[in-house]
Amino acid sequence: MPRSLVFILFCASLLFCSQLPTELVYDDILLIGKNQTLAQPSLSKIFTQHLWEGTPNFDGTNGSYYRPLMILSLVIDRVFFGENIAFYHLHSIFWHLLCCTLLWFWLAKYISRQKILFASVFCFAIHPANVEIVAFLAARNDSMACVGILAMLLAIKNNRSMGIFLALIFALLSKESALLIPPAYIFLHCFKEKQLPKKNILLPILAAFSCYFSLRFFADIPWPTRPSSSITDLGIGFLIYLDHAFFPDVLLPGSHVLWPTTKEIIGGCLGFVALLFLLYKSPYRILGGVLFIAGLIPAFSAIGSTGLAADRYLYLPMMGLLLLIASSCEQYKTSRMTTPISIVVILYMAIHSFRILPSWSNNIQLFADAVSASPSPFRAGAYAKALEEKGDLDLAADWYEHAVQPPNPNPHSCYNITWIHFLRQDFARIITAGEKALAAGCEPSAELAAPLSLAHALNGNWERARMLSNHHSRDPRNIFSIVRTALKARDRDENYFQNSQQSPLQDALKLLDANDPQSAAWLRERVQP
């Protein structure tokens, strides 16, 4: 192994091992901390379940993420390391370092100057956008898929049929984002050579796809539905990714297409100009460009589903971008600025990555730092949810209210804005916060309207309570039924109470006792023996 590569791996290891998180954060809490598949593993479960099936948010429907090797890697963590989360992160670091190693040997096929190759791989190893891959355990599947794809590309270069098959099936079973790279390679080969790749290359690719589709079919995992997203959202997401790739700073979760920062828009526009220049200058413009776009397309699907521009989606396309940058720099053979510029860029990325790592120490710290960096409604809502899960309901309520401010309230926080005050038993604030949220543009969902209806009823605003309860057939928290029962008593509806056992009578009586004792007395006469 080249000494330069060993130095890169040593520095990256030193960086990421210096601040190993010891708590689960973000989706790791569900995927690892509360996953029954990890507690009672079996190969049949691992290869016949979707990613989230063993977690509490599984609602009985089929998920669309088929990533058995990701689950297998977490099972290995649980078996060997138990609850020691630091070792889980060491496992993730291993996959990242392996990807850096394969990236070195793949780029070396195209880049002859060692200084440029060294700088390119070093930047990838410590890039702030890649901190999420190491610090966020649920993002490990991206580095595993990248290992498979790079191994496949190297096997293609060396005409290793079995290597192509094994590497590709490994990538596909790690994450679906690997699906587009092999077709992109076949397209490039046809475009350049005017014919299909040789059989010893094409057949292993087709065999790997056949195995993957067969396993997915027998596991009964459906394909994701096509997300709805506007051209504007996709364009903003593209600019955010270009900014994070070319001009990274303290990158934390929660970049959202509805609330981009000024820096992300300006940096994205400059990054787009830089990308066009690289596509013009690089001798591998087609290969690098296609790998960049093919790797980034799954990110557009995520943007359409959630609006989030997660940095982990940059991991695969980064190899295409690095090929463009390295091959363009190699055109300037006599430049004396290569070394000093490389040192400055590497130091810049190392410093920012080092600053990001402490934020991943726990869930509260992660989103506190994120909302401090950019107080968007999405990040405010994520911070509020983390506070709620830790039991800090008062501070969570304040941040939920921040998250539903006009003109673009966070839809997920709209569901929680009245419920958080219900948990606090602050019914006056349910009314003020709930009505403000509706005026700000929140959808009048059952989750928002039910506590609001109850608060209005307690306050004597019965008509407002009636209007809110009549608009919903769902009753996710069994609050509407209390309000409706009290309303039926106020209406003196004899027929409604003929089957009194089906009604929440005791709670309705408490509600009526608070501000309508006559209706409460009427109800008691009819339901008590």
Task: State the gist of this model.
With 529 residues, the chain is mainly α.
Task: Provide an overview of this structure.
The chain has 529 residues and is mainly α. The protein folds into three domains: 356 residues, no CATH class; 69 residues, Tetratricopeptide repeat domain (Serine Threonine Protein Phosphatase 5, Tetratricopeptide repeat); 79 residues, no CATH class. It contains 27 helices and no strands. α7 runs parallel beside α17. The radius of gyration is 27 Å and the shape is elongated. The mean pLDDT is 90.
The percent range for helix content is 55-70%
User: What structural class is derived from the secondary structure elements?
Assistant: mainly alpha
Instruction: List the domain count as a whole number.
Output: 3
Give the SSE order as H and E letters. HHHHHHHHHHHHHHHHHHHHHHHHHHH
Essential attributes:
mainly alpha; 529 residues; 27 helices; Serine Threonine Protein Phosphatase 5, Tetratricopeptide repeat
